[in-house]
Amino acid sequence: MENPEYIMFFDNHTSKFCSDVGHDLDADQFAATIKDIGADLIGFHAKCNQGFCYYDTKIGHRHPSLRPGHDYFGEVVEACRKQGIKVTAYFNCGLSNEDGVVHPEWCQIKKDGTIFHPEILGTMVTPYARVMCINSPYRDHLISMIREVKEKYPVSGFLLDSFNGFPCYCRHCIEGMRAMGLDPEKEEDAIMFAKISSRRLAQDISDAVEPRKNGYLMFCLGLSARDNLKYGSYLECECLPTVPCWGYDFLPMKARYLRTLPQNGEPVLNMTGRFYNWGDFGSLRTDAAIEYDMFFGLANGMRPNIGDHIHPSGIYYPGIAKGVKRIYSKLKQYDPWYRNATNPVDMAVLFPGMATSNTSKAVIRMLSELNMQFDCIDEISDWDKYRLIVLPDYIVLTEELQAKMDAFLKSGGKVLATGESGLDPEKTAFCFEKEWGVRFEAGRTFDPPYFTMVDEYSGLIPELPLSVYDDCMKVEALAGTKVAGKIVAPYFDKDWDGVYAKFYTPPRDLTDLPFVTMTEQVAYCSGKLFAGYYKAASVELRHVFKAMLEHLLSAPLLKVSADLPSFARSFVSEQPGRRMVHLLNYMPELRGEMLIVEESLAAYNIEVKLRLDGRKAAKVILAPTGEELPFVQDGDYAVFTFPKFCGYGLAAVEFAE
Ligand SMILES: [Zn+2]
Q: Which residue stretches of the chain have pLDDT < 50?
């Protein structure tokens, strides 16, 4: 299996009205440029979403402006091979406009009988491009093209795009649904059938390509990571953080999830873009912006992949090449500290189905701001390796989760739960009432609820009732449960009685309703802490969360002095013989309509304490220079100070023999 280290992906979807495709291509010069940049693998378009092929095909539609006989893709593959650069073939499987023009009967059909156009996450992807039904004869046509490229070119694999799983109501799909006993009238059945169809196509392509047997890289964009491990051979996170549907909250979740999945050393790639969005030919993000994405991935075991476009004519602009080379040269200095590194953690956050939401964004931000080391896990993950699991706001316990939770609690595992988390799926009672230490009474208290902390926790927040910014569950503390915070009721709930508005709703009475409770195994907050933090970024809510974490986790893996700004990010990784701390000091800023990172920021004298789990530090060095840093061993912690660093700092504690 290929194990690429520095990757570039050329995402080219070229209209038939571009009249000179490949006319200025000098494949040898292009490959020499890629070599000079320092990439060892490129993804290159064999077939684009416009439905055109760039290789010498007997099956698909050649791009009409390719010169007669010009094998654009083949020339690039051969020139790269001579330079020792691998190429994976890109196929858009879902979108293929030219195929839809020639064969309208292969197009996906909406329920109203018209041709379907895609809309993903509220953003039109390639407006007007026709989406092909993968249950129509297009399926064999596509697989034949993939087979054609496999047989004709020495490629290293396949990047297969647009496994979107949109429901289709063409006759093939309706007949298919009925044959499986599904009801095309029911939307959930149509969605389920679309997902089954996507997986079936992946299986058929996998059978044609045999990625693991042949050592090919194969990944299907749009399928889950777990499906990709089954049908493909590596993992990839596509994330342009400047595009709102991804933003700067997507990679932090996926990085901490994907790194938990490989069982056989499958590579995990981290794809960003040199531009703000796909199709944005005229932009080059700052070095700081791109290196932030890439360092973030590298600290989590992901290899860098920079998304790019080559000009349709085949010219590759020197401005892009110089920028990517500058960034890759910087990253490469740190490679010895990345290879085969793993990430030790204190805890995991559970996201069934790995669905992203405002709550997932908030909990990951809060843990990151507190420098906690955690994985993101789904319902299938192995919980045994964790001592603490966080259940944010909405995690009701299905039968399957109840069984896992039962085993986890019996093994002494600890749980931090908020809001509805821990309730049964019908939301009538906590599944582990004794361990949770609270009895459920109702799904909400007041509108709006306020809170205050009590007893030894009262100093955590200023002396005033504070807003939760979301619902609080009405619960009763069981005997023996420590109540650390209580709910404060407003004068009245928000309302309008037809004459008078109850809009200003000040806090009034301290109630006995618990806001935060603690037992030996479980810290519970009755408020939807993370939904609240997403709305108002209330630092006091994070103070509450921190106190709950401290109750369950007395000695975290990493402690960082308050001199590091809250927007900075920290990671711990390890290799045999050493444990490392990565600090990233960059700040994405919403500037007008665009989220940008303009510069890497300096940080000075950041003291860190790194838990060594019984090992002794022999020395602490700063990467990549190897400069030794003074340190002390304080119990189980190595304590040292990062001198000034700009953007990214990496220090390694070398263990004594
Ligand atoms: Zn269909």
A: none
